[in-house]
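Protocol step 4 of 6: structure prediction from sequence.
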Amino acid sequence: MERQISMASRRELIRSIGTRYRAGSRTAKRCILDEFVAVTGYHRKHAIRLLSSSSPRQPTATQARPRRYGDAVGEALVLLWEASNRVCSKRLKPLIPTLLEALERHGHLRLDDDLRVRVLTASSATIDRLLVVPRGKGNDRRYRRSKALSSVQRNVPVRTFADWNEPLPGFVEADLVSHSGENAAGSFAHTLTITDIASGWTECLALVVRDGALVVEGLTKLRRALPFPLRGFDTDNGSEFLNETVMAYCRDHAIEFTRSRPYRKNDQAWVEQKNGSVVRRLVGYRRLEGLAAVGVMARLYAAARLFVNFFQPSFKLASKTRVGARVVKRYHPPATPSARLLLSEAVPAEIKEKLRTVAASLDPLRLLEEIRTMQQHLAELADGGAPALLPVRDPELEGFLKSLATAWQKGEVRPTHRARPRPLHDWRTRPDPFETAWPLVCRWLKAQPDRTAKELFGRLQLEHPGAFPDGQLRTLQRRVQDWRTAEARRLLFAEPDLREVEAHDVSAASG
């Protein structure tokens, strides 16, 4: 039977009728027991044991497990998650040592030894648990089906997903991403995306229109930027790829030109995944057109290519086994494309040295700040704004660094994905019940930081009888949590307490 009263009410009921039950006759006990079982929902034998006991068992207080990862670890992980452009925890876990070293090398972050050890030893599940509040969700994918030119298809061999095996660096898949928004009419910008199969190295190039001649120009430019020679070029069946211009270019430069099967997206799974995780994540789904938008996209992709290829780990499929109707997939540990190239025996030593030199000079926060700035400008152009001068970046990055610690509280921070902000409700409708008592609570917290809000509330009630009803406990708990978060941020960024600095200045002046 469903229980209709709380546990506290059941205990009160046991105490009130237990004496009468034990002193009653057999008939009286049966009537009392029937009513007690009907009200509480207990099993009859359990109810007899409870009512027959002269000393009811008191509930034991459960002791919470001590926290190993406190607010300071959570704040550090939020900053690292934001600096990695919000990758998943399984990709963030192997990236933390590299990202932490890069941030400390450029003076953006400083952790003490104990905090550093806890951040580095946090598992993927712990990272997920500490980022459950900051992390938002959003997944709105749209796909476009392209038409094929059958007259050219016969001259280009088909390559499926299973035909890649283990190619050398330089065999790439290519695709064109349209930025037409909700209306595919007229002229709009496109992104040429290529992905290396062996390493996952990804390059993006903004095109003002969809045209085969521009694809050839883009390939010429990308070949100079790639850290390996372009050996193979695999595309879909779009007319921008399957034409005589692209075929002649590949033939003249000894590039193996292949295509996927029509309407089989999985044949180009490598680049299709990058279309979502790189291009759509950076640019979004809004309509972009004109030379101004292409110029901003070019600057966005110039920063994104370094950020994605040096600071964004990705998974790579190791094996796929079919067990009956179930397919078991195994993956290599997450690694960045540059790390995979450094481990490859097919990459010359001089290329590896250049990659190490570039990696040592990169500042991930400066790249991320450049990406966010260009995204803001793209959002303004998508809203119909007039082309304006590109904003000047903050050379110190102090404001951008501090904004990453609390960016999750604002939800989506990428301007190309963010909806129009609503006006904030920043005024109080009721007086603050702890306005006069909060300085006293702060002194207690500084003296004993491990005290819980419930203990502090009980102490307040003892010192100020009748001033604080029980219903205000949750308000104090929120205030104490905000205080702990502020203290954790102060320790994380090594920000001095202004009151301590002023007291030190006064004492120095008087001395």
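Step 5 (inspection) to follow. The first helix runs from residue 7 to 23.
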